[in-house]
Design a protein that fits this description.
This protein is an alpha/beta fold and 246 residues long. It contains 13 helices and 5 strands. Strand 3, helix 3 and strand 4 form a beta-alpha-beta unit.
């Protein structure tokens, strides 16, 4: 995994990088930002898999950084770093679809837990089983119900807040459970599932390929084209030429 650290204290940033190397030698720290604005620019430039960000930073704080990333629909998993006295702020951050959180002082076992969960989520998605609940069998029952909703309703307009409401929990609590058990936020899982379905439809010669974006729940064809390339590394046209003899 490529990891970007956003931490305004150089000593703390170096310490976290050292813990990451110890916890998972296969992960790479691709950069360190010392304020939120610098972190935002580096996320766009370096395309990390994970952003570990402090909540209290100059120029742009952690919450503002996360909101800016979400507003641009940048797909990066976010781990927040907070002190005990920042608990309420950390709770607000959880509602913004962060993957996990680390509380200072950070210990090696904390970093191992977080990186292990993120890696497990990625490995689970790469399994061949098409059923989401079988990819994540140990998830909370509410999370399993949410995965079933994705499977049944991916072609419709799905909002996390509506799913949480239908399950009888707050959006904040649902976000916490989902990220904790899946290692990705709800919107990322939904879009990956939609793209997986789109790939299958594109390979079906009986499918009207011009309507695949609509039937998989995307409201805009150009947005579908962009997300398809982000998820597969190929344009739709390249995918068709490579796998469908078009």
């Amino acid at each position: 995994m490529k990891i970007l650290i956003a931490e305004d204290e150089p000593g703390a940033a170096r310490g976290l990088e050292s813990l990451i190397r110890q916890a998972d030698p296969s992960s790479e720290v691709v950069g360190t930002a010392y304020d939120g604005r610098e972190a935002f620019d580096m996320v766009k430039e370096l395309d990390p898999d994970v952003l570990m960000t402090d909540l209290r930073m100059p120029v742009m704080g952690g919450l503002e950084l996360i909101r800016a990333i979400r507003a641009r629909h940048i797909q990066v998993r976010i781990v927040i770093i907070s002190a005990y006295e920042d608990f309420e702020t950390a709770r607000e951050a959880l509602s913004l679809d962060v993957a996990d959180y680390l509380v200072k002082p950070i210990m090696r076992e904390d970093v191992e837990r977080v990186l292990g969960k993120l890696a497990q989520g990625r490995r689970a998605w790469e399994t061949g089983d098409p059923e989401l609940k079988k990819k994540f069998p140990d998830a909370h029952p509410l999370v399993l119900k949410a995965l079933k909703i994705i499977e049944d309703s991916y072609g419709t307009r799905l909002r996390q807040a509506d799913v949480a409401s239908s399950l009888g929990v707050t959006a904040e609590y649902f976000s916490f459970l989902f990220n904790r058990d899946i290692g990705m936020n709800f919107s990322r899982v939904l879009r990956k599932y939609r793209i997986d379905k789109a790939k299958k439809l594109l390979m079906d010669p009986g499918t009207d390929r011009s309507e695949v974006w609509r039937s998989t729940g995307f409201s805009d064809e150009r947005y579908f084209q962009r997300i398809f390339k982000e998820e597969t590394g190929m344009t739709v046209s390249d995918y068709l030429r490579e796998y469908c003899d078009v």
